[in-house]
Here is the input.
Amino acid sequence: MQLKADKGVGRRFEELIKLALEKGFFASSSEIYGDAPAGFWDYGPLGAAMKRKFIELWRRELVRRDEMLEIDGAQILSKSVFKASGHLDSFVDPIARCSKCGAIYRVDKLIEERTELHIPERMSLDEMKRIVENNGVRCTRCGGELTGYSYFNMMFRVGVGVAEADAYLRPETCQNIFVDFLRVYKTMRRKLPFAIAQYGKSFRNEISPRQGLLRMREFYQAEIEVFFNPDKADDFPKANAIMDYELRLQQVGESEPAEITCQDALGQGLISSKLVAYYLALIQQFYEKVGIPRERIRLRQLGEDEKAFYAVEAWDLEVETSLGWIELVACNNRGDHDLGGHQRMSGHEIEVMDDGQKVLPHVFELSMGVDRSLYCILENFLSLKNGKIMLRLPPYLAPVDAAILPLVSREPLISKALEVYDELRRDFDVEYDDSGSIGRRYMRYDEIGVPICITIDHQTIEDESITIRFRDAAHQIRIDISELPYLLREWLAYP
RNA sequence: GCGGCCGUGGUCUAGCCAGGUAGGACGCGGGGGCCCCGGCCCUGAGAUCGCGGGUUCGAAUCCCGCCGGCCGCACCA
Here is the structure.
């Protein structure tokens, strides 16, 4: 497997990929086979541990904080689901092939490049074909004629059962939430507005996956769908708590984000409702808790030409890295697109009672890319001071909580250290290590972001006290062994 | 998908142009040393050189195809 960047991408990207491969954060999937397709990645032990902790923070700061309901749905969904959602018709690119050399083109883009005509999203294939013929658009490489007009759908189709009935791997996790909405609503005794959350895999047949975890064909999403009565999006008392909170909004046409309180953003009509303002605040606060500096976070408003086909209002939460601003969370007001579509397609009435009035709920979503977030976190906390690599991860996101180290690898220090290790390992992610000099081991754990080293030395044998060495400042304190579980919990606690 | 560059132990790389036993560094294992921040000593393991075919007595090296990577273009969450 080759991952080294030859040029262009920054040293930070390069160092991070190297660290990921060496230490087991992530690597490309099936790498021992030559035919492994691009865009699939496996998390190693450290990456998997970190992802677990990141999701736990998501549950803490969003799901539990806002009393959301979390579900876990199937990844293969029927054709009807995607007919209703619009993905079968709209999640596509029009393509055509050169009859001579076989090059494949995005027809709409080729026309725009050649003729300066603007091709709207919804133009039919036949119309595009006519424009190609009338304007003499041909293959840019060999001048051959275009043929084989068709749509390339980004969804993976699968055949279910012996009849191989058409079904699809979900291209976004949220369709489960929409098709399950009625049962969840009926069984969980909730009133509008409320949210359903889900963390899991999504699949998209990307044309050119690239840049490691940033664009994959199989990836994790953590999605939140807030269901609300569109007439009452401003009747939302929870928003009172965030009115003075400053969002970093970048409006269409601006090149820099501006800090503006939710109150003012609402007053100026930048945000459609208190409900939307509240959830934008929640998601920005989440990334601040992750530890990303405020100035590297922005909520960028999407223009008409950028929005997904289902969105009526869209903000992207983006984080700045050495590769530029990376989109981590799509915050879309999906209106009644989804529940309306499923209501029509399935024939089930999805309207619910709200204050004695029947309403089809609207949806505001926070659709988070988990793998991308992990990349941004790793890059943000990667420190490259004097040739030494250190991951300054917040303790609650570190893949290993603490390392337990005998000062020298000799008895009785070894036995004592193993005793401490046995005591802690069911409650904490701890590692024991006695190989090499103590300095070497400290560096080894700095490199993978372990916040705390517990060192057993000769004094431990005399009085049951141990040395605690903290990663970031490399300073040490001495505590009694009996205080260890309690203090560890405190040091590893969420902010 | 197009174009440019590239693919050698876990990582980085020498060797490729001028075919002839795959070398080094770091890392890793074992042993020693070590009373606190990777630099010491001894020792060991680990690569059919991305995959497949061809040329050749002989291919990491030359040729072809494929797969993969980075960048640019075009896209996308």
